[in-house]
């Protein structure tokens, strides 16, 4: 009887140690996320949700649980993993800490059932709140980068693919789409995963053309769909709220459909005839002018755009452009990116000056 009692005491003490360790882990992870919400995003709602979650965790972190702590006797304090030694981007840092919090909450949810009658259900609900926060926060982070992006590289197969993409990223590119229609899936997935990692090192978005499965498996920021691909609305259901879905459009009707289905951005073109879209008639600058007036999400003029005609496209109202050959075949991709961005920024400056003039003389 005494032995059974002692075993029960030992189990209870172990449960308390587990709960204490995971409450600490969850609170620390949330604080790391909260600091970015507060100082990086200046977001009061996200910051407040993190704070509310931390306070709820603290309310469960009783003196009994803290007293069970045995840091010197914990073998886990010496354990580490190479992936924990560095973070390639803010997104990776946030994802790592969200995972840390979610894992800790799951542990508390299960072991809490042995400690308190309502602890399991309380932490189950808290875990769902963290899932929602992650989806909203990472989605917001991606949307901010998308909104600020002016130049979009759509890749084509090349022996120098990684070198070209990295050179373009070094020039200030913040949006890359991996497009390869013919490579087998295993190689395509490996290439996508490597490109995704490369883009995230430069705080750039990585999008996969057509393939939702490869986008998910490679941890891409989203997918780009053509008119013959899966509907945007279905893709958004499959990908969840935090990833981006873009859509190619060639006329006002397709634009309206993409907007109604919830596309996060649209491609507008082809502005000029291009071998990338062989046999497809150019939509022309008139469609660019239409998009400038009616598009309600970020849009990128695309199709045959080069350093020789980009100012014509900008003159028609484009504030963002997407290119393929102009960068994939460039001898100096970094310089070409900088040229495109300079022209687009000049357009933004002129527009801002015009706005100021109209406000002052209206």
Automatic annotation (TrEMBL):
The keyword DNA-binding does not apply. Pathway: Cofactor biosynthesis; thiamine diphosphate biosynthesis; thiamine phosphate from 4-amino-2-methyl-5-diphosphomethylpyrimidine and 4-methyl-5-(2-phosphoethyl)-thiazole: step 1/1. Keywords: Magnesium, Metal-binding, Thiamine biosynthesis, Transferase. One of its GO terms (biological process) is thiamine biosynthetic process. It catalyses: 2-(2-carboxy-4-methylthiazol-5-yl)ethyl phosphate + 4-amino-2-methyl-5-(diphosphooxymethyl)pyrimidine + 2 H(+) = thiamine phosphate + CO2 + diphosphate; 2-[(2R,5Z)-2-carboxy-4-methylthiazol-5(2H)-ylidene]ethyl phosphate + 4-amino-2-methyl-5-(diphosphooxymethyl)pyrimidine + 2 H(+) = thiamine phosphate + CO2 + diphosphate; 4-methyl-5-(2-phosphooxyethyl)-thiazole + 4-amino-2-methyl-5-(diphosphooxymethyl)pyrimidine + H(+) = thiamine phosphate + diphosphate. InterPro entries: Aldolase_TIM (IPR013785), ThiamineP_synth_sf (IPR036206), ThiamineP_synth_TenI (IPR022998), ThiD2 (IPR041397), TMP_synthase (IPR034291), TMP_synthase_cyanobac_bac (IPR016229). Its cofactor is Mg(2+). Residues 151-326 form the Thiamine phosphate synthase/TenI domain. GO terms for cellular component: cytoplasm. Residues 130-362 are annotated as: Thiamine-phosphate synthase. 4-amino-2-methyl-5-(diphosphooxymethyl)pyrimidine binds at residues 177-181, 209, 248, 277. Residues 66-86 are annotated as: Disordered. CDD domains: TMP_TenI (cd00564). One of its GO terms (molecular function) is thiamine-phosphate diphosphorylase activity. Binds 1 Mg(2+) ion per subunit. Mg(2+) binds at residues 210, 229. Condenses 4-methyl-5-(beta-hydroxyethyl)thiazole monophosphate (THZ-P) and 2-methyl-4-amino-5-hydroxymethyl pyrimidine pyrophosphate (HMP-PP) to form thiamine monophosphate (TMP). Belongs to the thiamine-phosphate synthase family. This is Thiamine-phosphate synthase.
